[in-house]
Amino acid sequence: MCASGGPAMPKNSLRDIRQVRPDPSALKALAHPVRLRMLSLLRLDGPATASGLATRLGLNSGATSYHLRQLALHAFIVEDAGRGNARDRWWKAAHESTHFGAGPKEGEALEADMAFGQAALNWQIMQMQSALRNQVNLSPEWRKASTISDYYIPLTSGQAEALVKKLQDLLWEAMRSAPPMGGPYPDGVEPFAVILHGFPRPPEGSVEP
């Protein structure tokens, strides 16, 4: 996720990826579904104006501007000084990745993690459902490259943590080797989503149908 485009990275060249670790108050602000979607659009598709985002999200300009101000207040987005003017302000994501959930937490910090986690999960489910509906429009090559998979593996908590880290390191390396999000991209290159969930299987009866 990034606000600017670029050519493919030279072989063996890795780029820096901007990452934010928000405090509980910032994470709670980002847990609002509209703000989370706005930030995602700015990361995935690049800079935009309030009016452009309002059209895409089906919001009025006042609500869009309010949510943008909240994102800017917590430093998730910044004004793109190289575009627009005083009447037509452009906004861009300040970071490509949001990091949360690390380490033991309680109280306000745990509540913020849970609220953001729920908002992020809802957004991810929407993306996966859209991807499934779009399968019929994909080329055979992209259908072959896509997957809907789950794996259940008996592990200790330490083994599970090591496995998740190994997967995350692999994905992080792929991100650093790839062009920034937002395009333009080289021929044949498309944004490819990998949504990773790892968790102990919930007890029977604890999951709503």
TrEMBL record:
Transmembrane segments: none annotated. Pfam families: HTH_20 (PF12840). Gene3D superfamilies: Winged helix-like DNA-binding domain superfamily/Winged helix DNA-binding domain. Coiled coil: none annotated. InterPro entries: ArsR-like_HTH, HTH_ArsR_DNA-bd_dom, WH-like_DNA-bd_sf, WH_DNA-bd_sf. Residues 25-118 form the HTH arsR-type domain. This is Helix-turn-helix transcriptional regulator. The lineage of its organism: Bacteria, Pseudomonadati, Pseudomonadota, Alphaproteobacteria, Hyphomicrobiales.
